[in-house]
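Researcher: Please predict.
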Amino acid sequence: MVLNMKRNKIIEALSQDKLIEHKQRVAFHEAGHAAGIHLNNKARQLPPIFFKIIFKDMGGVTEADAMNYQTTHDDCIARVEGGRLIESLPPSIDSLVRELTRHNDAMVQLINDYMMAFEADIINLLIGPLAEAKHVAETDDELFNHQLVNLKALKNYGGSSDLALANEYLQSFSADKQQRDQKLDELFSVAFDFVNNDANWAAITRLANYILGNNKNIIGCEEIVSMLDESIDHFQNRRIIARSYQNG
């Protein structure tokens, strides 16, 4: 009986560890999406857009949820609501471009802006699972690089639904699979570099830790934006001070 009690305690401890790990992964995933929507869009001089992070009651998350999350991430645990610059995709971007430019050359700038927003939405989708992947790599004291974390690997970091939505975008981008794959690879590299940027990563980490420490079911846009901007400013100020110190 004593052995059974000890075994049950060990199993319970392992289950708790799994749930803690799960919550951390979810927090970094959603913090990544949020950082992309605000910081990546801002860097590309795209207009600000409303969004918020919505969480299921994390106290009610089960071990089964944690096990399923890695491959499904079906938004029943957490999701970013809003945040997409393009909400209604055209059947074909080529046909849209032809229609817009048929009688008005001035529409070229509008098309360029549209493509910038189109690509930003895809990048921001990819940033979520990449942020989770970087968190896991750092926790396990492993490298985070393109060879170890590629597009196919994102499904192991809650990225299945993100990839599915990115592919919906790309279906309207081109009917040619090779062109779609090339564009996705290109945008994946941009998303990877965003996450691997020290300032962006510091902002993602701060937001993820805030998520974990507050157990809020909803984190609003203004709160997220303020936190991310403060983190970037703090990081840049520290870098300026460090450089001044090095230069004597």
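Model: The chain has one domain: 2-246.
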